């Protein structure tokens, strides 16, 4: 997080309070990053609001620019502005959509997570990050090269945030129940799958220097397990990866990142593998 020089902060005038701006100020204060404020609206003029916010932030000592823009829809506007300004992180407040709306329409935040080349921080609370728990969600059962690269990105960012905020990094990984379990009441016998998962977990801990106390392995659906562990640890931010599915596969399968953002009480930082980042940059 220290290497990010510019933050794109999505300002939404209809919200009573900008959680995104509060979090951006906290990050910028610690990292000395530049703030670029964006309002996406084609119908109303928000120049007065942007001027007030910009002047106030400059008075407080922040480096700030601002713009109102519109490109077809909100998530496209955010992505185009991020590319124009070269911002290394998009910060946006997340407001839960109704179940009916999510059934009928793909939420804007889901579209942003799928299509934005840069990391996206969805802010859900104004609780300070300082001295808090940073939770990194990974899938230690997938040890192929692509997943390990994504895991490294998630853990590296988690460590950076923990260092920046004087917090503590914890890691969570969920594994599904094995299809066939051989269990004896007196002499429990792990299945081959469970043994393999435990071995992969130990190797993950060794590679990334994660102690047993900070490694949380649970059986169950990833979205449920991540939510449970985040609540138990009172995490201030959860770092998660996404494969950025689009089209029919996204509609049928969904992404854990998309499913979990409405369930978590913490902020959510969503990262992507490098190959997907390059692919999305080419599309933009």
From TrEMBL:
Alphabetical UniProt keywords: Cytoplasm
Q: Where's it found, cell-wise?
A: Cytoplasm
A Pfam family found in this protein is Usp
Which parts of the sequence belong to the UspA domain? 135-272
What function does this protein fulfil?
Required for resistance to DNA-damaging agents.
**Organism of origin:** Pseudomonas helleri
Q: What is its main location?
A: cytoplasm
Q: Does the keyword Transferase apply?
A: no
Q: Does the keyword Cytoplasm apply?
A: yes
Protein name according to UniProt: Universal stress protein UspA
Q: Which GO terms describe its cellular component?
A: cytoplasm
- Similarity field: Belongs to the universal stress protein A family.
């Amino acid at each position: 997080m220290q290497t990010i020089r510019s933050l794109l902060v999505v300002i939404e005038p209809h919200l009573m309070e900008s959680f995104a701006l509060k979090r951006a100020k906290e990050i910028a204060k610690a990292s000395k990053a530049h703030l670029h404020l964006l309002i996406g609206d084609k119908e109303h003029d928000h120049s007065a609001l942007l001027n007030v916010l910009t002047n106030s932030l400059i008075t407080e000592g922040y480096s700030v620019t601002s713009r109102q823009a519109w490109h077809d829809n909100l998530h496209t506007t955010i992505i185009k502005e991020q590319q124009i300004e070269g911002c290394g992180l998009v910060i946006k407040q997340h407001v839960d959509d109704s179940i009916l709306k999510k059934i009928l329409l793909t939420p804007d935040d889901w579209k942003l997570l799928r299509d934005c080349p840069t990391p996206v921080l969805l802010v859900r609370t104004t609780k300070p990050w300082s001295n808090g728990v940073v939770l990194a969600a990974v899938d230690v059962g997938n040890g192929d090269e692509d997943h390990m690269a994504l895991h490294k990105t998630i853990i590296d960012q988690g460590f950076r945030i923990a260092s920046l905020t004087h917090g503590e990094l914890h890691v969570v990984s969920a594994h599904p129940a094995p299809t066939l379990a051989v269990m004896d009441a007196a002499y429990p016998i792990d299945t081959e799958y469970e043994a393999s998962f435990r071995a992969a977990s130990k190797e993950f801990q060794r590679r990334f220097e994660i102690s047993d106390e900070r490694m949380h392995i649970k059986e169950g659906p990833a979205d449920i397990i991540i939510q449970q562990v985040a609540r138990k640890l009172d995490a201030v931010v959860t770092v998660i990866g996404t494969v950025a599915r689009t089209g029919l596969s996204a509609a049928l399968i969904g992404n854990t990142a998309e499913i979990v953002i409405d369930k978590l009480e913490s902020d959510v930082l969503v990262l992507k593998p490098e190959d997907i980042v390059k692919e999305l940059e080419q599309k933009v």
